[in-house]
Amino acid sequence: MKGSRRSIAFVLLAAAVFALSACDNSQGPEGIGSISRTQGEGILKRGDSTSPLAVALPVRIDDDIVTAAAARAELTFVDGTRLTIGEQSQVKIDSFVFEDGPRGNRVSLTIAGPFRYVSGKVGAGEGGAVSVRTPVATIGVRGTDFWGGPIDQQYGVFLLEGSVSVTTSAGEVVLTAPGTGVDIAGADQPPGPIVQWGQAKVNRAIATVTFP
User: What is the pLDDT of residue 127?
Assistant: First the structure.
C-alpha cells in the first residue's frame, strides 16, 4: 500500500509541472463520459476534490485522471470515443464539444504516459477536430485508432487505423498507413522517419495499455 501511495504522489507531482489548461465548459449535467474500466489504483481530480477511480464514475471537462503503478483506466465519451491510459499516466480533458452533427465537434486532451485512442463520432467526419497534446508532440486525429507513449528511451506514436499528424516545434509528419509509427527524441527535435514497426515493438507498446 505504501508503494502505491508513493506512486500516486509521484504522478501528482509530475502533473503539477505538466502545463494543462481548460478550454471549454460545454457539457451536460451528467458529464461528457465516464470511467468504463479500471485496474489498480487511480484517482479523478476535480478542482480541490479527488475520487478513487471506479466504473461509471462521470467525467467532466477540466478533470484530471491519474493512474498509479501497474494501473490502467479506460474512459468512454458520449460520442463513443474510447481512451485507455496505462500506469503512472495522466489525462487532462481540456475541451469536448459533441452535438452529433457534421461540424463544430471537437476534443482536446493533454496526456502524459502511455495511451490508446480510438475515435468515436467526433473526428470521424468532416468538420470535427481532435488533438492530443503530449510532453513532446501534438497529435492531430482523424477517424483513428492509435497508440502513443514512451518506448525505447524515446516517445513513440503508432497507427493502427486512420491517420494522425505528429507535430513538434521542429517539424511534422503524417501517418496514414496502419502498422507504421514514428519515434521522437524530444520536444525540440523533429519526428523521426516513418517506419513499419516490428511485431515485438508493437506488442510492447500495446501491452502498456492492455487489461489482463
Answer: 60
